[in-house]
């Protein structure tokens, strides 16, 4: 239990730090820059994937890989599975988590809704990095409509 | 014994090539690279059959076998045997053994598999180094040392520590049985033919 808390607190401090950094750079822009946080997630996802898939049989196809992300990968990091996986079978996947861990501490209303995107950037990078190590290049975005639930959109880039 | 171990990246660029022993001319760096690269085509071919298998013509048993990360013997020449292993992240691990040395001809598949699995574990540890960037060559001396250890200990020397341990444990059990014989006096030599036979059995079968 204690290690979960450490991870959560470290994560929120990283975000605070990144926000401070961008504030120093330019005061004019209103936009928050979370690309650093996203990159930290990417590196972590990339590295963790090598270990997670060590005992795993070879993945059959892309969908098999996504199922792995939804079950084992998510369980490893967030101690729960993705609640819903949807796909159009053309490279777009939507992963829905009804109680996303970084958002469960906030109120369920609209009070902090505008700050929610900050808390999903790391996870977007995490998914992207994990997939990149599995040779799937993608763009991952997140969408928060009502508070503890969160949708991750994965667009696989085919070349 | 294993003469060479290589880690090949996603784009077939070598991340690490290590070898032991440089007593003969065939053990130099260049021939190592050549040996490893001859196997890459065979490796890609194996992977391709795995992918086409999804369409489902082959039997189920064959498919599960092909989904294994260990690909088995890829290529053998007069002097060397080359084994392959591909991780889910498309990192290729290649192990080359010498088939000319006396111990090289009877390396068991399971031993190579174990060595490659251990190599995979070492690789995963090596890239978890925060200073390592994906796609970079692995220059860690620690990794190098551990890989050389695998090459020296595991593959080639035919007796593994675990086997010796099992044999000695079984010997212990036999001894315990033998002295429970009511005609056996403490400190006496063990003369039981049954014990003798069982011990010889252990010696023949196991170690």
Automatic annotation (TrEMBL), chain A:
KW 4Fe-4S (keyword) present: no
Assigned keywords, A-Z: Endoplasmic reticulum, Golgi apparatus, Neurogenesis
GO CC aspect terms: cis-Golgi network; endoplasmic reticulum; trans-Golgi network; TRAPP complex
Pfam families: TRAPP
Family listed: Belongs to the TRAPP small subunits family. BET3 subfamily.
PANTHER family on file: GEO08327P1, TRAFFICKING PROTEIN PARTICLE COMPLEX SUBUNIT 6B
Protein name, as recorded: Trafficking protein particle complex subunit 6B
Organism: Arctia plantaginis
UniProtKB/TrEMBL annotation, chain B:
Pfam short name (any one): Sedlin_N
Subcellular location as annotated: Cytoplasm, Perinuclear region; Endoplasmic reticulum; Golgi apparatus, cis-Golgi network; Golgi apparatus
Entry keywords, A to Z: Endoplasmic reticulum, ER-Golgi transport, Golgi apparatus, Transport
Keyword Endoplasmic reticulum in annotation: yes
Main location: cytoplasm
GO terms for biological process, alphabetical: endoplasmic reticulum to Golgi vesicle-mediated transport
Gene3D superfamilies the record matches: 3.30.450.70
Highest taxon above the source species: Eukaryota
Gene Ontology CC entries for this record: endoplasmic reticulum; Golgi apparatus; perinuclear region of cytoplasm; TRAPP complex
Assembly information from the UniProt record: Part of the multisubunit transport protein particle (TRAPP) complex.
Family: Belongs to the TRAPP small subunits family. Sedlin subfamily.
Protein name as catalogued: Trafficking protein particle complex subunit
Species assigned in the record: Arctia plantaginis
